[in-house]
Design goal:
- Pfam families: HTH_48, Transposase_1.
- With 300 residues, this protein is α/β, with parallel strands linked by helices.
- It has 3 domains: 47 residues; 46 residues; 161 residues, Ribonuclease H-like superfamily/Ribonuclease H (Nucleotidyltransferase, domain 5, 2-Layer Sandwich), CATH 3.30.420.
- It has 13 helices and 5 strands.
- It has a 5-stranded mixed β-sheet.
- About 5% of the residues have low confidence.
Length: 300
């Protein structure tokens, strides 16, 4: 058992009402010489009794925790590609994490999509934010006009997106949109706000994706500060979402940025709205009309 698993057991016993002494006895009877010390048991029992939910180490100052996770996953991936005869123990020693954690990264994160892409996509949910303006200019392609022989091309005034806008946070998967949140004027997306959205997402998943009730959600988001905050990390652990690492500063790897949002903005091109309410209604209508096949063309 690694230290994270031991903490999970301690947390479980605390919730059952056991004292640190009782917990220590339970662990000794099962783990024998590998059981943690009484001081460790006492420390974590006190933490959980005070209301702590996370079983992970406290986040250190410096680089965000998710960046470290991304780095570890990348190191393991590169190591395996360079030498496919590597043993799990050797990988664990090289990147300084537990053997159990290496197994998890190899099989749950790196290998699931290769083994069973359909299952991966059934469990994969991604999210991103975008501004939707009251007026979005048409693309160059949309604004092209037919002209007769000898006619001059009409000059067009330069257009820019309107100042009026609303922030949309869209959670979606291979079947469609699971949840959309529209940020109220004057508010910002903080860790606490985003954490509350994850609770709403969890409820939406229960209603719209019942097949995920007994499976871990493979959850993807970028490395925005709100997404990597401690309160969000704790919430993701509480909900048992498995975070799919996102390489830092890689917008081209975010499905929303290269697929979902550009098509939405293209559809909105040239339309004018007078209020956030109109924008919200039109955006909801756009997504409601899309067929499931739009999100996932091939299900073979």
């Amino acid at each position: 058992m690694d230290k994270i698993e031991i903490r999970a057991v301690i947390k479980y016993f605390v919730l059952k009402g056991l004292t640190p002494t009782d917990i220590k006895n339970e662990l000794d009877s099962t783990l024998k010489e590998t059981a943690p010390s009484f001081s460790t048991v006492k420390k974590w029992a006190a933490e959980f009794k005070r209301g702590r939910t996370s079983i992970e180490d406290d986040e250190r100052t410096g680089r965000p925790k998710t960046a470290t996770t991304d780095e570890i996953v990348a190191k393991i991936n590169n190591a395996v590609l360079n030498d496919r005869r590597l043993k799990v123990r050797e990988i664990a020693e090289a990147v300084k994490i537990s053997i159990d954690r290496v197994h998890h990264i190899l099989h749950e994160i790196l290998d699931l999509f290769k083994r069973n892409p359909a299952e991966f996509l059934r469990r994969f949910i991604t999210v991103d934010e975008t501004w939707i303006h009251h007026y979005t200019p048409e693309t160059k392609q949309q604004s092209k006009q037919w002209i007769g022989a000898g006619e001059s091309v009409p000059k067009k005034a330069k257009t820019v997106p309107s100042a009026g806008k609303v922030m949309a946070t869209v959670f979606w998967d291979s079947r469609g949109v699971v949840l959309i949140d529209y940020l109220q004027k004057g508010k910002t997306i903080t860790g606490a706000y985003y954490s509350s959205l994850l609770d709403k997402l969890n409820e939406a998943i229960k209603a719209k994706r019942p097949h995920l009730a007994k499976k871990k959600v493979l959850f993807h988001h970028d490395n925005a500060p709100a997404h990597t905050s401690r309160i969000v990390t704790a919430k993701l652990e509480e909900l048992r979402f498995e975070v799919v690492p996102h390489v830092p500063y890689s917008p081209d790897l975010a499905p929303s940025d290269f697929f979902l949002f550009p098509n939405l903005k293209k559809w909105l091109g040239g339309r004018r709205f007078t209020s956030n309410e109109e924008v919200i209604a039109e955006t909801n209508g756009y997504f409601a009309e899309l067929e499931e096949s739009y999100y996932w063309v091939s299900k073979s």
